[in-house]
């Protein structure tokens, strides 16, 4: 059983023109295979360079150091109230750069950083731990997400709810104020809630957490590495605590604020956003080849490649309003095809 967007079909030509980007995508069997797609991508785009991958990591670390130096050296000289305005701006900028580092760790988990699995895991473990992400835990659940994307039963995250399984408070949140509250919670607490409580994740018969080595998310071969992930996060949290105790909360804000809250240029995030279709097809292609590889597959994919240029803040609000649950159309002949709807 699968799940896929979008909202109900528009009924008039005016509506069709107005929300053309919300037209339902084709769900018929495509006239090409994964092998066909791979053939149109030049082979060298699949090649990973250890030196080049490290260069992007070093670049991000230099930016983090530079912004930290500027903030801690010069912001203290700003007069009131500019001092209090400058720090949040710095947190935003620094948070975006740290997101880029997090994306490199994500690439390590996909074996896209280098040809050497040990190097990938060491680099990914270090930098994900520093950013309080359990590297191996998320690596394994994320791998299953890639294997089961948009499956209601088997996907590990972003699992939509059936109308029959909506929670009792859904009606109370189906209004502008409720959407603001829900979005605020998602954009601030969504990531830690997912890691700790598997919020928005696959439904298991018992408690599931990325920090539980014996939980249902992981198999016996993975459990030792889940312990290692936990040790990495705990050690990083302790180091952060000691630094905050010595430096103050402003330093902590400079190091952690904004990874989930803000969006910046695609380049800062190493193009994980605008090449995500390719990423789900061939996740071992490194980010520095992803744009060219995406251009190579677009002509073959045709209508199966969808792009929505709606500004992010508009798209988030639209989705919170239109994509409340999924269900089959009445009389639908599409086996296992569910569509997002919003009529409660």
UniProtKB/TrEMBL annotation:
Localization of this protein: Membrane
Q: Does the keyword Transmembrane apply?
A: yes
Indicate the transmembrane segments per the record: 61-83, 89-106, 118-138, 177-197
- GO biological process annotation, one example: lipid metabolic process
Task: Look up the record and report any one GO term of the cellular component aspect.
Answer: membrane
Q: Which UniProt keywords apply?
A: Membrane, Oxidoreductase, Transmembrane, Transmembrane helix
InterPro entries associated with the record: FA_desaturase_dom, Fatty_acid_desaturase
All copies of the Fatty acid desaturase domain together span 86-252
Give an example GO molecular function.
oxidoreductase activity
PANTHER family reported for this sequence: OMEGA-6 FATTY ACID DESATURASE, CHLOROPLASTIC
Family, per entry = Belongs to the fatty acid desaturase type 1 family.
State the name under which the record lists this protein. Answer: Fatty acid desaturase domain-containing protein
